[in-house]
Amino acid sequence: MDTSKFKALKLSFYAILSVVLVEFLGGLLANSMAVLSDSAHALFDALTTFWLMYAVKLSLKPPDEEHTYGHSKIETLGSLFGGLSLIGISLFILYEAITRILIGTKISLDFAPIAVSSVIYTMIVDVFRISILSKSSTVIIKTNLFHAIADFSSTVIALIGVSVSWMGFNYADSLASIILSIILGFLSIKLIYESSLELSDIAPKKDYQQIKSILEGIEDIKGFKSFRMRKVGEQYFVEVTILLSPKIDIQKAHEIISKIEEKINNVIKNVTTTIHYEPIEEELSLTEKIEKIALKSGDVKGVHQIIVTKTRDGYILTLHIEMDPNMPLSKAHQISEKIEEEIKTKFPALQKTTIHIESYPRTNEGEIINDENITNQILKILNLNQKIKKVSTIRVYKSSGNKYIDIACSFPENLKIEEVHKEISYIEDIIKTTLGGEYIVTIHPEPV
């Protein structure tokens, strides 16, 4: 926990408190309104510094259940109060200056040296306060620094007022006080404006643009949304949702987020970054989107045969979903209806959806056909093709009323895919013609 802010304000408070006592006694003895006015100014400043100390002490408390972002906003409230108090000071000095001109107050010449000494002491204290407060750049310390500068300025005016009045010109300090009140008024309005912006959670424009540039410069990010930024005291909070390709795995997404956080930390200090990521739907094909909808239900174990058909009456969708074979039909039907409804909502162009429900895992009862005559005919056809260098497997079987022939054979490794495909298609046609069209032939090519 950084307590340097509190220590600086504490030293400033005790210093200005000593000024109140010294200037009050000096002004009272010399009957100097300038010195008494500066003493009142110092008293008001002491009260303000005390409040700022209290605000900083509260702001240093760690986050809790009621203040999950911490207590730094209290520091900003203290700055706002400091700005308002500066307005009060400027109005007070203006009032006192005009009053002294109208009344024509004169100082006691016998005690003038005491008044001058008290003012010189005040100037030394103000310089001390300015030196310790200028070492910090926080808003609340700046508030007290403005007070210290204002004190020094008013003390200079008090010194001029006392000195020139001592020489016989009674209005010099009052005229200078009017100028000081205008300066203080400007400083107070500026401070109130800056504190109000921070309390309204305005994002610092420069920092916001820097983070935006970082997000736009990461190649893997397809876009971002819900980008929010706020400043609480010296702490920055950044929240953003980045859009990534659905093909990126969790590990890769984590690496991208870590990269963004590192870049943000390099340009902004004291920042807490929260990054969410979502897959970008636009990159998915229609069948991938439909599959994603179906698999959203934990009861659906697999999806296949997604077919979209265009007809005169619109687009028709059919798909197969795999579920637990022991699941009751009523529950399976409810799940399929829910999937159909979501598909209809997201894709209004699909007029009708038909879902075929299967058990998982899908298994079909089959039978191997051990017919040497069929195997030899197939082998003879394969051997006639000069581009086939080796036959690894010939499998003939029945499944779900269909007859299948699966073949694995080798071709030269430098042969192009297009040429291999032509050879495979030609061989499949010869086998079907020779053995009969009821066979479904599948040839798997391998490089030699």
Folded structure, characterized:
It is a single chain. The protein has 448 residues and is an alpha/beta fold. The chain folds into 4 domains: 196 residues, Alpha-lytic protease prodomain-like (Up-down Bundle), CATH 1.20.1510; 78 residues, Cation efflux protein, cytoplasmic domain (Alpha-Beta Plaits), CATH 3.30.70.1350; 74 residues, Alpha-Beta Plaits; 82 residues, Cation efflux protein, cytoplasmic domain (Alpha-Beta Plaits), CATH 3.30.70. It contains 12 helices and 10 strands. The strands form 3 sheets. The protein has a 4-stranded mixed β-sheet with strand order 7-8-9-10, covered by helices on one side. The chain has a 3-stranded mixed β-sheet with strand order 1-2-3. The protein has a 3-stranded mixed β-sheet with strand order 4-5-6, covered by helices on one side. The longest helix is centred in the N-terminal third of the chain and has 32 residues. It is rod-shaped and about 135 Å long. The mean pLDDT is 77.
